[in-house]
Specification:
- There is one protein chain.
- This protein is an all-alpha fold.
- It has helices at residues 5-27, 30-45, 54-74, 78-86, 97-107, 111-121, 127-134, 138-155; strands at 159-160, 171-172.
- The protein has a two-stranded antiparallel sheet.
- Helix 1 (5-27) runs antiparallel to helix 2 and helix 6 (111-121) crosses helix 8 (138-155).
- The protein starts with a helix and ends in an 8-residue tail after the last strand.
Length: 180
C-alpha cells in the first residue's frame, strides 16, 4: 500500500461529503461536482505529495477544487457553458427553498463570478486571497464580486448595498406591497 493511500481513504471517509458539497456549490450539478472532486483528488495525490494528516490533505483538495472547476470550463466550448448556466437544479433536493434559490442564482452567474462568490462568501476569503487563489488581479476580483452581487440581487429579488466598508454586503428583501 502506498504511503498516501491511508490519508486518501481517511479524507474520503471523513470529509468526502463536505468536499462534494463544496464542489456542488461551484458546479451546480451533482455529476459535475463528483467529476471535479475526483480531478482535484487526482491532482492533489498524484504528484507524490505526502500529506501528514487528513486536515492538510483536505485543505489541499479544497484549494484544488475551484482551480479544477475553472480548468474544466476552459476546455468546454461556449454552447456547453451556456447550456449549463441555464439548466435548472435537480428538483429532488431536500434543501429549503431559499438554498435552492441561491444555488439556482449561482448557476446563472459566469463561471469566474461564481468562483469568486463561493470563495468570498462560502470560504470567507478576502479579495486579495481570492485574487491569489485564482491568479487574478484584485480589481478583477472586485469587479466579478460586484457584478455577481448585482446579478444575484436581481435574481433573488433583493437589494445589495455596497456603500459600506466593502467587507460585507448587507442584503435586504424588498418591501412587500401593502406591508407597513
Amino acid at each position: 500500500m502506498a504511503r498516501w493511500e491511508p490519508v486518501l481513504d481517511a479524507v474520503m471517509r471523513e470529509r468526502g461529503a463536505r468536499l462534494l458539497a463544496y464542489a456542488r456549490l461551484l458546479t451546480g450539478d451533482d455529476a459535475e461536482a463528483q467529476d471535479v472532486l475526483q480531478d482535484a483528488l487526482v491532482r492533489s495525490f498524484s504528484r507524490g505529495r505526502a500529506f501528514d494528516d487528513v486536515n492538510r490533505a483536505e485543505a489541499y483538495v479544497r484549494r484544488a477544487i475551484p482551480t479544477v472547476f475553472i480548468d474544466r470550463l476552459r476546455k468546454r466550448d461556449a454552447a456547453a457553458r451556456a447550456h449549463r448556466r441555464t439548466r435548472d437544479p435537480e428538483p429532488h433536493r431536500p434543501d429549503t427553498a431559499a438554498v435552492l434559490d441561491v444555488r439556482d442564482a449561482l448557476t446563472r452567474l459566469a463561471p469566474r463570478e461564481r468562483a469568486c462568490m463561493v470563495l468570498r462568501f462560502y470560504d470567507d476569503l478576502t479579495v486579495p486571497a481570492i485574487a491569489a487563489h485564482l491568479g487574478l488581479a484584485e480589481g478583477t476580483v472586485k469587479r466579478y464580486l460586484a457584478d455577481a452581487s448585482a446579478r444575484m440581487a436581481v435574481l433573488l429579488d433583493t437589494h445589495a448595498d455596497w456603500d459600506g466598508d466593502h467587507t460585507s454586503v448587507p442584503v435586504e428583501a424588498p418591501a412587500q406591497k401593502g406591508a407597513r
